[in-house]
Amino acid sequence: MRLKTYIVNTMAEALPMIKKDLGEDALILNTKKIKTGGFLGFFKKEKLEITAGVDPIPPKKGLPTEAKSPSKWSDPKDSSAELIHELKNMKQFMMKQMKEEDLPESLRLLKKQLIAQEIAPDILTDLLAKLIARDEFNTDQTLERVQRFAREELVAMMDSHQCDEITQQPEIICFIGPTGVGKTTTIAKIAAGYLLAKDKKVGLITADTYRIAAVEQLKTYGSILNIPVKVVESSADLTKAIEDFHDCDIILMDTAGRNYQQTQYIEDLKQLLPTDSKVQIHLVLSLTAKYEDMKKIINNFRSISMDELLLTKKDETSSSGAIVNLICHYDIPIRYIANGQNVPDDIMACTPELVADFILGEKTNA
């Protein structure tokens, strides 16, 4: 491994030097504060000693089997290099070492903005590291220019985590989720979309007999849209309702919103939901919830195979970081974001560009 030590005032000062000397694959191996200069032991200045290193011959993907044999890769000298290559890349590691005061002012302001949006710490670190690693980046750039770079990196990050779209069109979509997330209103919006924009024949089913108001609400939407609605209380009722809707192109099913921490509720839901391959399960979450609560909800519903997430109540929160967190942390597609009570208007297709607008404001030419 090739090593080099730098004596600098701040980490930010060292970054371009390390990048120039050791390249993109270098890693920060050690940092410590030292005293330098002075006269007769007095007036010494505090500096930062940074040791960075790079493996001159990093392991390559797709090597032939013989190249990976113990005779060529078991040398103890390579053990430290292999361990280092398991760490995150150089820029992420640097960011973890940097203190707030080491960041350029534009990055400090951007970081504050992203924290206010509740971007998860690991995603925030990764994003800032990618910004520092950009060839165009320098420490005296304006906040507006850094925000433009951040937008590009944020979109790219979300693009890289997007799941492949499900090609098989479902015949039944079941909407599940905790109480109060707006499932019924959202189902009405999606039903209107199928009916008006796609010219599909739609059937509505509700199993939310736990709340009488929910049944009446869906029936009201069904009456307005001229869509038939059936109420079911058991799996037998559901089978019959699906048979009655045999001429529909798509069936949308509402379920009772209950306490997601009650495992019995989830077990009861599993017994009710159809298991046919042409059935999709969509978990509905409210953006007004804390991200930690969203994670618990997803984990508690993991025993039910979820095909998509659907996010609601965007209009009731100024924080959108949870959308980025969900895209980057989970392998479940997000197709729609609902942003109000108006049917059928207040629903949007979820795209990386739209989410970046939520986080950083509308795109500018800065």
From TrEMBL:
Residues 169-315 form the AAA+ ATPase domain. InterPro entries: AAA+_ATPase (IPR003593), FlhF (IPR020006), FlhF__GTPase_dom (IPR047040), P-loop_NTPase (IPR027417), SRP54_GTPase_dom (IPR000897). Pfam families: SRP54. It is found in: Cell membrane. Residues 54-79 are annotated as: Disordered. Gene3D superfamilies: Flagellar FlhF biosynthesis protein, N domain (1.20.120.1380), P-loop containing nucleotide triphosphate hydrolases (3.40.50.300). CDD domains: FlhF. It is a peripheral membrane protein. Keywords: Bacterial flagellum biogenesis, Bacterial flagellum protein export, Cell membrane, Cell projection, Cilium, Flagellum, GTP-binding, Membrane, Nucleotide-binding, Protein transport, Transport. Residues 170-361 form the SRP54-type proteins GTP-binding domain. Transmembrane segments: none annotated. Belongs to the GTP-binding SRP family. Necessary for flagellar biosynthesis. May be involved in translocation of the flagellum. This is Flagellar biosynthesis protein FlhF.
